[in-house]
Amino acid sequence: MPFKLVEIDAAADFDQLIECEWISYENPLQNFFRLFCPLRGTGPTARKESLREATSRQLEWHESDPTSYWQKVINEEGKIAAGALWKICPTNPFEHQDEHSEAYWFPEGSQRNFVTKALEIFDAPRSRMAQRPQLYLNIIFTHPDYRRKGAADLIMEWGIQKAESMGVEMWLDATIYGIPLYKKYGFVVVHENAISPIDNADEEWRRIAEDLGPMTMWQMWRPVGGNYEEGKTIRPWEGSE
After folding, report:
1. In whole angstroms, what is the distance from residue 219 CA to residue 66 CA?
2. Distance (Å, whole) CA 58 – CA 18
3. Which of 55, 87, 155, 226 makes an SS bond possible with 67, Cβ 3.0 to 4.6 Å?
4. Helix, strand or coil, per DSSP, at residue 1
5. Main-chain dihedrals φ then ψ at residue 215, nearest 5 degrees
6. pTM listed for this prediction
7. 84-132, pLDDT tens digit by residue?
């Protein structure tokens, strides 16, 4: 099936792009996705309204972040089959505090506190290990109808070429589903991160913790040039630990 990889046109594409993102992460449901894109309410319009809010917020994040680069994979009819958000970082991305460190898209209270703490745990390994110029694969997804047809390969190949042209390393946070794909492109697992915030929990905290369930992410790294040999390749962060 012929695909084409192009940069998005934010004004024209964002609604379809984020709708594809939601369908992809909901089939099967990947709990960490709800940290960023929660369902608000339980009525018949809850998903539609939640999707609208998430689309607006992600567009705002994209337009306010100079490192943000969204791309789409389209089929012959121009339908979005897959998408990716890269953070192109010519300098250390952890030099300044993230503006999204507090989960303001959740209501005030224990839900927001839980998600804020979860995101702190989520970012902690990379903030410690990845304090150098880099290409970071923030988001990647493929619509269920187009999986295992080469769409993700187009995205990964673009990323490798971009990192090589910049002369930088690559980072990503992987779910269990993505690890085989990333290993194929020279990434190695350097940390396993169990995201399980602990607090003197009230009922609201316990409910969201139960709803989201156990979340584990694997931090993966590709060195400059992509040549990694276990026990020989220097991991830059280990010399400073």
Report:
1. 23
2. 8
3. 87
4. coil
5. -125, 125
6. 0.95
7. 999 999 999 999 866 667 999 999 999 999 999 999 999 999 999 999 9
Nearest Cα residue to 179 out of 143, 216, 133: 216
The angle formed by the CA atoms of residues 164, 130 and 8, to the nearest 5 degrees, is 55
217 close to 174: Cβ distance less than 8 angstroms: yes
Map tokens 């998903």 to a residue. Answer: 47
Residue written as token pair 């012929």? 2
Give the residue ranges of the chain where pLDDT is below 50: none
Q: For 184-196, how does the pLDDT look when each residue is reduced to its tens digit (9 = 90+)?
A: 999 999 999 999 9
CB 122 within 8 A of CB 217: yes
Contacts of 122 (CB under 8 A, 6+ apart): 32, 35, 173, 193, 195, 217
What's the pLDDT score for residue 99? Answer: 60
